[in-house]
Design a protein that fits this description.
Blueprint: E1 8-11, H1 15-27, E2 34-37, H2 40-49, E3 54-58, E4 60-61, E5 64-65, E6 81-85, H3 91-98, E7 103-106, H4 109-113, H5 115-152, E8 157-160, E9 166-169, H6 171-177, H7 181-184, H8 198-211, E10 215-222, E11 228-239, E12 245-254, H9 256-278, E13 282-287, E14 293-296, H10 298-304, H11 308-311, H12 331-337, E15 344-350, E16 356-368, E17 371-380
Parallel strand pairs: 1-2, 1-3, 3-6, 6-7
Antiparallel strand pairs: 4-5, 8-9, 8-12, 10-11, 11-12, 13-14, 13-17, 15-16, 16-17
Length: about 375
């Protein structure tokens, strides 16, 4: 470590020792301008006027104890400080080191002769501490920015390492799981979910790390209140500078209400299907614009003599005697779709065997998949 261009401040009222320090540094090829402060007050004034690059402070000064010089952690100090004690014991030196001093020497010809080497090592250690402090601070700033970004996301979001351990979670995640961000760090999802819900989430993490590709799926969790909640989850790999997967990022959007609505719809459809199939009267559903048959129940099949596969996708006009060359829809069907919903119409029905039956038909126009459809209920007259 080159000390030749450093501004060195020596706080010592022992002129002989100061001169010895000059000769030792000069003999080592180090001949920088050395500022000397003979008192503690003068040292403080010199530091305030121009902070040095390096300071040597005697612990026994005429106007006070050098131990009164504030000791900050070396990594936070503006310059490295080495203390010198001339009482011939190691007790004070050890005490200063325990309080956080970078180095403390018991003054003797031997230790002072080694001062250039000691100062170089102290300066090198201080520089490394400074670099480590800047790295840590940069990391903390990065973590703060990362957290700020995560917390702006209204849905639960997180970062994990390749082992599935949480590196960061946002505020929305903590509200869902009832844990703080600090409680999540270093733990896996298995620590927060009952056994039957964790394996699929863990497996998706493994898949993302193995394949290096994003995943999109729906999953359920049980929250701390015991409620089943559904989420649409998106996970993706974090790629490092070498192109390797370094972690996992994820976000989950709650879809519990949608799943509940879908379940209710399925249950309603199941009830409708049972009522439809078990109805005593013949029921059929046809596209209101084209007359194409979309569905029918068992009673309707018994009434017409057809199999369902023979009717679905065929025009409803096939079930009625010819009308002017068999148009796409019959006149009665046209009346229903023209706004005569609920009107009871007597019509002739042509069965598969060719038998014509006189039936009463009542129809209602409904909407199926965004298109109008005619729901007809038929029975023998």
């Amino acid at each position: 470590m080159n000390l030749a261009h450093l501004d060195i401040l020596v706080a010592d009222d022992n002129t002989a020792r100061v001169e010895f320090i000059r000769r030792v540094l000069k003999g080592a090829g180090i001949d920088p301008p050395i500022r000397v402060a003979g008192t503690l007050r003068a040292y403080r004034e010199a530091v305030d006027a121009r902070p040095p690059d390096f300071a040597l402070v005697n612990l026994s000064l005429s106007d006070g104890n050098g131990a009164d010089v504030p000791i900050t952690p070396p990594e936070a100090a503006p310059f490295p400080v080495v203390f010198i004690t001339g009482d011939g014991s190691n007790r004070l030196a050890m005490d200063m080191l325990e309080r956080g001093a970078l180095a403390c020497l018991v003054a003797s010809d031997g230790t002072l002769a080694a001062l250039p080497r000691i100062m170089a090592r102290a300066f090198r250690d201080w520089k490394l501490m400074q670099e480590r402090r800047r790295t840590v601070e940069a990391l903390r700033q990065s973590e703060r920015r990362q957290k700020a970004i995560l917390d702006t996301i209204p849905d639960p979001a997180w970062l994990k390492d390749t082992e599935g351990r949480f590196l960061a979670v946002n505020h929305a995640w903590t509200k869902i799981f009832g844990r703080t961000a600090d409680e999540a760090l270093g733990r896996t999802i298995a620590d927060f979910l009952p056994g039957e819900h964790a394996p699929s989430s863990i497996q998706s993490d493994l898949d993302v790390v193995r394949d290096g590709t994003a995943a999109h799926y729906e999953e359920s969790i049980v929250d701390p209140q015991g409620r089943l909640r559904w989420f649409e989850t998106f996970k993706g790999p974090i790629i490092d500078d070498q192109g390797a997967v370094a972690g996992i990022t994820g976000i989950a959007r709650e879809i519990t209400r949608r799943r509940q609505a879908e379940q209710a719809l399925l249950e309603n459809e199941d009830r409708y299907r049972r009522l439809f199939e078990e109805a005593l009267g013949g029921g059929a559903l046809a596209d209101a614009e084209t007359g194409i048959i979309l569905d029918c129940n068992r009673a309707f099949l018994e009434l017409t003599g057809y199999d369902k596969r023979e009717l679905i996708g065929r025009p409803q006009s096939m079930l009625h005697p010819l009308e002017d060359g068999r148009p796409a829809v019959t006149r009665s069907f046209d009346r229903h779709r023209a706004g005569k919903g609920g009107e009871l119409i007597v019509e002739r029905l042509l069965t598969k065997s060719g038998l014509v039956k006189e039936v009463e038909i009542k129809a209602t126009v409904v909407e199926i998949g965004g298109r109008p459809a005619a729901w007809t209920h038929s029975g023998l007259k």
